[in-house]
Structures are given as C-alpha cells and as structure tokens.
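#lab-general

N.A. 3:47 PM
ok so I finally got the sequence cleaned up, no stray characters, all 95 residues accounted for. can someone with queue access submit it? mine expired

B.Y. 3:52 PM
send it over

N.A. 3:53 PM
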Amino acid sequence: MNKYELIVVLNATLTDEDRAAAMDKVNEYITREGGTVTKVDEWGLKTLAYEIQKMKEAYYYVIDFEAPVNAPADIESNIRIMEQVLRFLIVKQEA
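B.Y. 4:20 PM
back already:
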C-alpha cells in the first residue's frame, strides 16, 4: 500500500448537499479500489488563479489515502467524468 494525496477542486455553484455527495462519491471510488481514506481536509471556497469554465472561485478538498499501486489510475478515470469536479490531482507521497 502506497500513500497518496488527492486534491479535488469542486464547482463553486454547488450546494452543501451536492458537495457532500460529490465527496462521498470520491471516497467511494477510493475504497472500491482497495484504498482507505486517512484524512479529508476541506479548505473551503478559494479564489482560482485563473478562470475555469467562467468561474473565479471553487471549493478545495485535500484527501490523504492509502491504496495499492494500480488504484490511482482507476480512481482518476472515475473522477475525470464527474461533472462537479473542475480539476483534480493525485500525487504519491514520499515514505
């Protein structure tokens, strides 16, 4: 099991319930691939460095998780098709 960090940027127009549902779905993708979420850090509404889809603000989340080596590719493919997600990045953490 490797340690990873996932940064998710969600659409600013989402309601609290929609954001919670989107994050639940992301957590579900991680656990479905055999991973375990160790920490979820909500940064809240932040100003973007540049406009994305005509939006100047978005909600940021940082998720630390452990997963098998092949899991990040599968997690990325699932997150990529989520309409609520503007951007995301998975990075392997150093041991």
